[in-house]
Design brief:
Mean pLDDT: 85
CATH architecture: 3-Layer(aba) Sandwich
Order of helices and strands: EHEEHEHEHEEHH
Largest sheet: 7 strands, mixed
Oligomer: single chain
CATH superfamily: Gcn5-related N-acetyltransferase (GNAT)
Number of domains: 1
Helix content: 25-40%
Radius of gyration: 17 Å
Strand order of the largest sheet: 1-2-3-4-5-7-6
CATH class: Alpha Beta
Strand content: 25-35%
Length: about 190
């Protein structure tokens, strides 16, 4: 399950979850884009007492409308990839979104929760109809996304950091959506 971040309480939970992952990974916590569309991945825990039901937030993702000069961009700028030089990005700038603050809490990794991201992508794709997503992704996360989304995801360049490697990624949403067999399999997987 997921929830779109729409309230101050949701945003506080988003910041707490993302901040925890940043501290653990020793990542710089970039500012939060005011026009970003944020999601929390959540798991509901029910109780025999209706007022005791609670949710655990175990992941986050933010989509930011792409603009090369955006001060909140985590993908374009010095020491990053120049997505703005790619003809496909230039031609479709109004339909390009950055993926940022994408994480899955360590206690939920390798336990079948990764597929939850497809539900979020499905919601964002159907609502905003992007042509491309662009991102800097941790290398192992990129590999998992490549397995999940196939040839629609292309690594452009690898950057080595002090404690991990990042891959500049372009995700052709329309290429994925044209592969009905893959989309149907992902939707089925995300429902389990």
């Amino acid at each position: 399950m997921f929830q779109k971040v729409e309230s101050k309480k949701d945003f506080k939970t988003f910041k707490k979850t993302w901040g925890k992952v940043c501290r653990k990974q020793k990542w710089h916590n970039d500012p939060y884009s005011p026009d970003g569309i944020k999601y929390n991945l959540k798991q509901s825990h029910s109780s025999i007492f209706p007022f005791k039901n609670r949710e655990t937030i175990f992941g986050t993702i933010e989509f930011i409308p792409y603009s090369p000069g955006n001060n909140y961009s985590s993908v374009e700028g010095p020491n990053r990839y120049s997505f703005s030089t790619l003809p496909a990005i230039q031609e479709n700038q109004g339909r390009v979104w950055e993926i940022d603050k994408l994480c899955l809490a360590s206690e939920y990794q390798r336990k079948g929760y990764f597929e939850s991201f497809f539900r979020v992508f499905d919601d964002h794709i159907n609502t905003y109809q992007p042509k491309f997503y662009i991102a800097l992704m941790e290398k192992k996360f990129y590999r998992m996304m490549r397995i999940m989304f196939g040839l629609a995801i292309e690594g452009k360049k690898e950057f080595s950091g002090h404690n991990n490697s990042l891959i500049a990624v372009i995700f052709d949403v329309e290429k994925l959506m044209d592969d009905r067999k893959k989309v149907d399999a992902l939707k089925k997987l995300a429902k389990t």
